[in-house]
Amino acid sequence: MESTSATTSRTLHPPEQMGNSAAIAYGGCTLGVAAKAAANSVPSNYRLYSLVGQYLGPALIDRVLKASIRTIRQTRTFATRLVEVSQTTDGGEDRACLIALADFQVPEEASLLEYSATPTRTYSHHSVLEEGGKQRQRAVDAGMLPQALRDGFEIGFGLMARFFETRPCPEGVFAQNFNGLMKNAATTQDGLPVAEKGTADWIRSLEKLPDHAENMAALAFLMDGATGFVALGFSNMFLEDSGAASSLDFALRVFDNEVDIAKWHLKEVVTHVGAEGRTYAEVRLWGEDGKCVASMTQQTILRPKKEKKGKL
Fold it and tell me: Where is the Acyl-CoA thioesterase-like C-terminal domain (predicted)?
């Protein structure tokens, strides 16, 4: 990103798409820009602990993103920033894609209580797992996954692979039905209600990131993944089975002041509720020491396809 004024900045490149065939950007691109812009606006000793807001519309992949920052609060302990991410339309006007409140705190000297939630089930450790691409090729070689579908997967979800190494856990639904692409694949969780299923990956960035702002941008980018279609994948469906599936809001909470995305973390995705044309999903991230370092909750619009009416 480059600064364009004391309160505005823009990306050097347009955002990119992932997991969706429409010419719109992966939401994690917009979210990462918001996190980085907000983190760059506070003193270097402040740490992000909350990024809460709304997706206002899809970002396009043919133009850069712009971020504007407004200071809401600045004290010796806390800082709050209002961040808006937008793009310039063909008519020259700014169209908002996302708006969020980012909260920061100077690290405390000590914690009165320390505890952490655990994953919903036991997952294999990354040390005994292969990288996701190798896992999928083994599935092709074993006749479990068509080569064309595997190739489509690598293209559709290739953006994540450019920045992160991912090792899917075989106990998770998405390692068994390939993110829902294999709709009829049997999984070990088939007998469970959708809200009791889970999927997980071990993941780390391919490069060491230089500072807190970069790590928060990468964290936000990473945590947005799968929330929009997890309920579909847990229900033997994929994006083409819905009339609309797009994230509406987000709440990123950070529980570790020094998250290092270059280290291995376990990322688990679950969904809690589906109702009123929306789903509610959660992503949580644990370090190798078992400490939960971040969570992301989102509501997603999930409309059924409109029935085609026959002509008389």
Answer: 174-301
- Based on C-alpha coordinates, what's the Rg of the chain? 20
SS (H, E, C) 46-82: CEEEEEEEEECCCCECCCCCEEEEEEEEECCCEEEEE
Rounded to the nearest 5°, which phi and psi values hold at 201?
-135, 150
pLDDT digits (tens, 9 = 90+) for 210-239: 999 999 999 999 999 888 889 999 999 888
Three-point CA angle 240, 280, 174, nearest 5°: 55
Angle at 40 between CA 34 and CA 46, to 5 degrees: 105
Three-class secondary structure of residue 154 per DSSP: helix
At residue 183 the predicted structure's pLDDT band, cuts being 50, 70 and 90, is confident
Domains of the chain: 1-106 (3.10.129.10), 124-306 (3.10.129.10)
Burial of 123 (0-12, 13-18, 19+ CB in 10 A): buried
Residue range 65-88: mean pLDDT, rounded: 98
**Amino acid in the structure at residue 282:** E
What is the maximum span of the chain, computed from C-alpha positions, in angstroms? 74
Helix (H/G/I), strand (E/B), else coil: 188: coil
Pairing of strands 292-304, 249-254: antiparallel
Q: Where are the alpha helices (DSSP H) in the chain?
A: 27-40, 132-141, 147-156, 158-163, 173-177, 212-223, 230-233
pLDDT of residue 242: 87
Residue 245's DSSP bridge partners are 302
Q: Which of 231, 195, 217 is nearest to 304 (CA)?
A: 231
DSSP 24: B
Asked if 131 and 166 touch (Cβ cutoff 8 Å), the reply is: yes
Give the 3-state DSSP-derived string for 246-278, with helices as H, strands as E and coil as C.
EECEEEEEECCCCCCCCCCEEEEEEEEEEECCE
